[in-house]
Every structure is written in structure tokens, then in C-alpha cells.
Amino acid sequence: MEQLRSKKGFICDMDGVIYHGNRLLPGVKEFVDWLYRENKNFLFLTNSSGLSPKEYQQKLARMGLDVDQSHFYTSALATASFIKSQSPGGTAYVIGDHGLMNALYDAGITINTVDPEFVIVGETENFGYEHIVKAINFVNRGAKLVATNSDLVDPAEEGVIPSCGSLVAPIQAATGKMPYFVGKPNPLMMRTGLRLLGVHSEDTVIIGDRMDTDMIAGIESGMDTALVLSGVTCREDIEQFPFRPRLILSGVGDIPTL
């Protein structure tokens, strides 16, 4: 634990680590206070694409956490950056919420429902048969399939809710095309996170609740790894994977020192 506390940079997932739905998890306020008190460089890096950094800042503020907007980075921003690098001024048919739409707009990507270059899928509650049909036909006609992340479910107050990996699955199955997943554990997103922190990977720890995204991202990026059991992973699940986090914590409240 002292090795973790000595790190200069902290990359933290949000769903299942900081909150469930609109409920702050135990020990989070003490953890954030500790990050500020110890002058740590920290980033809330989330695979969720539905909200903007400003909206995440306001969400945490409603829960009693005052965190500057600069401390947030989302898979929507990562996806918009990737599409811009591949096709500046490109076009896309988008299944997702305004966080993804706004990020693409800011990156100069135009929404196209006739002959898009890309089909981009993120999280949304407004997902139906019509979206699947359009996406399948666009992909079959040559559009490239991109998804903000591969997470199948997200933790919620009532249990779990379907995430991007579940929404893109029927499009993948019907077209036979594998989507390109931009979010964790993609090194693209991790390298951007480290650049925003201004800290080298060996001086950084990633804290998350998922083995298949957070922990593998940390291991492959050369970071220290800490799995919290406050999200979708329980201790028995860890044995299913051929890799392990260095630390297993009940939650981020285990980290601060008095």
C-alpha cells in the first residue's frame, strides 16, 4: 500500500469506483481530499461516453465532490480524437448520447444518416431496432464500425445496465465485422491519460473495478494496478483471469492515510 501511496499519478475509473448511479461510494470523499492534500496528479478516466467532462464535474458536485473539469477524460473524447486522426472532417452515423455527439462535433466530425464513413456506437438509453437496421446496412455498404468501449455492463444502483459492448454486439453479429474499441484497455486512451497527467507510467497507478479493462490496461501500459471490489468484480472472479492486480481493495477509502 505504501508503494501505491507514493505514486505521483492516479488514473481512476468512475462507475463502480467513485459512484454507483447517483450514489457516492464509501470513502470516496476522503480519497479525493487525500489526492488534493498530497498534491497528486489525478485523472478520472471513464469508458462511459454519455456525458461531457463538465457534466461529470457537475454530477460529482451534486454528490458533494468539488473536482475541476480538467480531471476528467472520457471514451467519447478518445473516440472523437481517433476518428479525427483517421479522417479529418469525416462523417458518421452515431448511436449514442450527447456526450459522444458533442465530442464528435467539436472534433469536426459530421453526422451523416445517408452514406457515413463510420458507424460509431456508444452508451445510450435510446437504442432500438431501427438503429440496428441502419447500422447493419451502413456497415454492409462499407462504413467502418467503431465502438467507444467493450464493456458489456455498467454498475447501477439497481444492479447493472447494458453498456456499449452489449449494444454493438447485434451489429457485429449481423455484419461479421469486428468493431474497433477505442476505450480501455486500448493503449490509445491510456497514453492520452498519461499525457494529460504529465506523469510516466512507472510513476502511475490505475484504480478500477474491472479485470478485463482497467487491470489489463494498467498491466499492458506498465502502471501499478489496484482493483476495487466496490463495482462489478468480486474476489472469486479474479481467478478466471491469467493476470492479477497487484493490490485488491474493498474500495478507494482504503487508500488515504490519516
TrEMBL record:
InterPro entries: HAD-like_sf, HAD-SF_hydro_IIA, HAD_sf. Pfam families: Hydrolase_6, Hydrolase_like. GO terms for molecular function: hydrolase activity. It comes from the Bacteria. Its cofactor is Mg(2+). This is Acid sugar phosphatase. CDD domains: HAD_Pase_UmpH-like (cd07530). Its EC number is 3.1.3.-. Keywords: Hydrolase, Magnesium, Metal-binding. Belongs to the HAD-like hydrolase superfamily. NagD family. Catalyzes the dephosphorylation of 2-6 carbon acid sugars in vitro.
